[in-house]
## 1
Amino acid sequence: MQKLAEICIRRPVFATMLITALVVVGTFAYLQLGVDLFPKVDFPNVTVTTVLRGASPEEIETEVTKKIEEAVNTIGGIDEMRSVSTEGISQVFITFILERDIEQAAQDVRDKVSGILRELPKDIDPPVIEKLDPDAAPIMSIAVSAGRSAREITEIADKKIKQPIESLNGVGQVRFIGDRKRQIHIWVDAQKLQAYNLTIPQIEQALVAQNIEVPGGRIDEGRRELVLRTLGRVAKAEDFNRIILANVNGMPIRVSNVGHAEDGVEEPRTLARLDGKDAVLLEVRKQSGTNTVEIVQRVKRRLAEIQRLLPDDFRVQVLRDQSVFINNSFHAIQEHLILGGLLAAMVVLFFMRNLRSALIAAVAIPTSIISTFGLMWYMGFTLNNMTMLALVLCVGIVIDDAIVVLENIFRFIEEKKVSPMQAAKEATAEIGLAVMATTFSLMIIFLPVAFMSGIVGRFMKSFGLTAAFAIGVSLVVSFTLTPMLCARFLRPVGKGHTSRESWIYSMVDRAYVALLDWSMSHRAMTAIFSLLVVASIVPLFQAIGKDFIPQDDQSQFEVTVRAPEGLSLSATDELMRRVEEDVRKIPEVATLLTTIGGRRPTACEPERRLRSIEGPGPKKGESARDNGAGAARVAQIQGFAHYDRAGRRYRRRRSGQCGRAVFGGRAGSEQADRIFQQDHRGCEEYSRRRRRGHLA
């Protein structure tokens, strides 16, 4: 590295171009980097969901779940397998070891399940095999409401909003909740069916057979062929009344003879309500691996275009937007990064009292950080909490090498009275080995973090590598740009007081010497104090709180509940209206969204969810962490199986009950603790948990 420093001192253009190339690549990479909340992590979990409508939990367990478990259990690399069998639904959860490739593991599960399809009941729906993908969570929720029927709102929202958004690059899926799609209903009279000796399956077969378009062959006309199709689709709803169901005593029996057709909507299985008014909710999901902020911006731009084409009475409101919190977090860390760089330069100026020296040292921070973006882009990282945390942490580290080299060059100029060119060569050569040892020791600290095992290691990989990248670039800067700038821009020190004779240095020097003298005079006490500090690590580590990710306040809280088995949609809606009345009493609530049946149920159905989006910001001293007492109270409410507040989990299970509540957010969440106090009974659940080699 000393040879490189000498070349850069003699060839300033070479040093400038070298660092400029790194900065240009880093700047280009920064513009290409995606912005996300956390790094992209693939969890080694695969779920097999099978639906057999009307089957009891016992039948699901014996006829479906066990057979799937026995087939999947032969796959290598399984760490844990558990299953849940409820009325009509079987779910098998397979957790693989981290070293297992999740794509290959999911394919192995598909192969095994497809091999036993003949052994499963004939009436089952095709098993759905999914890998756990954090990117599958909705990134946006869009509520559409108007003073019209739900069917008309759904029709317009589907054609004018859903389809244009789905066509955007990066959008994976747009799913409706609370929609009412058109459906033709055939209402029949049971007594008339009995009189004509007809059954429902006969009517179904007749409707399917006479409402279909089928190929009609082709006609050869010499050098030309014509393709024929038999047009058998019913064009109007009233035309269904003329469909012939059967012939009785030589007379055709039509739908109008046993009932009538109605142009209606499909049976409601979901419901969405915004601030007490019925609405249609669109949940936008991105494609796996794409950038959340970029996709949300595209959707918002498209929504701005769409709203100009919608009727005047349509209200389109974005309720859930992950990009807001991600952008706020990113901009906060970006601000801290800039402030840290400025404060580090000011500290150098304060102690060295030389503006040129402070500017030379300050140049090392932006050049090292910006150059690191190029390596992050090459590794496929994004600008997220982990990588930005590494950059903020390294602000004080990347300037260390430059300060050490700069201070030694400045000392040579000040004390030995040599020229800046000669001082840059001699001082860099003298301090070079120490600087390299310091830098490599720091890199050795961060690199093992990138190779930690487990899920934590996957989250920390980008953190460790980003920090190591920044420190490595700072070493290059300190041996190229810093000595070159010192040789060209520092000025020889004239006669007068040196920096060592300043009152700041004298005060620090006297205090340090006095502390050193005392420590050397009381060696035993100093050693005992050091041992006590080291020993305090154990009790302090046990006393401090532990969590996987920091508790963030996103100004919203959510309540998720699974209703008792067999509860109808209307009964659940009635219950949720009472819940809404209680939540509206919380003064901080700004928007209230209720959905019923919005997610696939796993134990009880229907499922109901209530999300409250609160006001612009928390009051001073108030946050999600202030609600610990409320968490303890909700944990004791009879009928709750799960309570999750800002990452802390309290589990309570009782036989014959099923319920779940999820709260999060700011002030007001404690008042929500008292919302659900019903005793939800009747939810039968059979759970099995299997690890490789034993069954628990």
## 2
Amino acid sequence: MILEELSQLKKFIRLFFIRPGIAVSKVLDIYSNKFKHKKLKDRYLTNSSFQQNPFKSGQKLYNLNLFPDLINNISEIEQNKKNDNFEKLVLNLINHNFNLLGSDWKNVNKIVKNKIKNLSNELEQNRIIDLIDKDYRQIDWQIDFKSGYRWDVSTFYKDIKFGTKAGADIKIPWELGRMQQIQLLIIYYELINKDGIDKSVISSELKNQILDFIASNAPGFGVQWASTMDVAIRAVNLVLASSFLKKANIEFDNDFESYLISSIYEHGKHIIDNLEWSAGMRGNHYLANITGIILIASHLPITQEINSWLEFGINELMNEILYQFNEDGSNFEASTNYHLFSAEMVFSSIFVLLNLPKEKLTALNCGVKTYYNYALKKNKVFNGLWLFDAENKINFKSRIIDRLKKIYEFSSAIINEEGVIPQIGDNDSGQLLIPNYDLTFESHKPFGANHLSQLDLMKKVLELIDKLRDNSDLLQFSVPKEFKDFGLYILEKENVRLYIKCGSIGQMGKGGHSHNDQLSFELFIGKENVIVDPGTYCYTSEPQLRNEYRSTKMHNTLWFEGLEQNEWWNESADDLFWLKKDKAKAKKIEFSENQFAGEHFGYRKPHKREFTILKSNDIGRETLAENIPIISDSQIAECIKVKGVDTCELNKTKNISFHLAPGVLIINETETSFIIGVNNKKIEIISSAGKFRKEKYFYSPEYGLRIEAEKLVLISSENRIEWQIEIKSE
């Protein structure tokens, strides 16, 4: 008890390393939630937590289609289907073999029977189990099937602990519990031909998996109710399943349909009662809560309660678009992957709102002057960021539309033609929809197709909005190279692109999803990522590795042994999502088409870094330094050169890392240069200011997955270190 109170005191103290207003709000939230927790637990333990279906027979459900051009958007999956990959994937899912977050394929059938302390829940669970086909094997929804650790299904959801058992990762059961495999089963059902798996097998698996989850996870108990964000994502998949079953005219008995709709309603109630909102700061978790509420309320029958949820969801979505996305369109969490995850939730929600049926819109239009705010638990005046037009359709104010366009432009700037993005900040592989995702059959290019699908969804939403506006320039897009709010700068010549991080640590100074990557860069040549950010790999399961991957030395920048750009605590799982303060205070000095200069103050002396990118016509016969050979006339016409200069007067040995992507071949090496090969390009990394050392490291392209690769470390005692990268066609 004393240790727990001491831990709470430490958390209280560190709150004041971020903005004081945020700190006070968080303290109030902690103590308010503690009181609510006790009351809620007593209620859950004494009564059945299953909700009865609140809707009358015959009340209409409203189908949602979040895949606007499903068949046209799945060329990659179609290709996999032709070579049997997709069918093998679906067979794996039917047999309950899952490959999630680097787990490799594991069978997740249940061995231990659930034991629920609440007798009322047990009776209801047995009724649901009786509806499942007798030859169906139930899934173990509580297990981390990478480590084998299982959470207790009878534990009240607010008492679930994680980060306390070495190697156990709560994200594994959460990922499984999102039930995104439902989307893949639906896609396969729609594409199925006479040679494929029988359609009745797919529809039965959909029914059985849904009933299995409902029966095995009594509301409010076990790991699957501990994260409201994951509850919301699961709700989205249940809504998609319900819509699909209706649209495809697949008929099940009334009991199944009643339990499915009751469960969707239960998910909505749980989200409303457990919103991840804070007056001080909230992020992608709260955005997921709002997305879940909007989709649930858009699908369920019209009632006063459901209408109130929808009004609340729309108003909060408008607020969060402006709160969580910077004016340059980037996300405030300072992570490219979290940007796309959050953007996907925003645009999916808006796509649904723009396609609401007339009855929903009419009901909604009756009560938009004031609405009940479930986060603040009080009535609020309608915020005015959206309205109804003359045709009773939802229209958005220009501030919202402008921000949506900026989000699209930032997304376009970071996604290449293969769908690959630079990894800046954390990457937990989070996604809402997976219409283009084949569960890591090509793990070296994770989520590439899905990123392109996300971008396509954003464009479709902007096109829908544009149709509602007169004389609009909404579809006239630009792709900026400078994003001051995020701290991202892009230098580009021909097919060579450099992404440079210099700026905010995100989350208003908390830095929870930021890394020590100031002045780090990634190098793309054409479609290939050549010099990469090593990624994230894990969160609470292995704290030491979590901190290693966010450390300065794991980025392509200048580092010193024993020093970090920004520091963190090492006392609890929460510390893995904090930086003590933004000590580095990185800032841009200069940015133009060919040059970037920036500095940070994370060490005892400032670190300044300059980049220059020159194409063949600009290079001439200049040299980097006396000992670097002059480029010959024959090389000039085929060469692009990236020049780097690192300056720091700290009297310690200096290291500069260059993390090579897996598959990049080292052709030749000396103490002052390395020649590497990528496709038909020969790339030489050169410096006369120190010596290169080759090392192994593990590249993490997605959460939970590591691939061995090589990195170069330039070691120097100089205060000014010049280096260059020459890219030549072979």
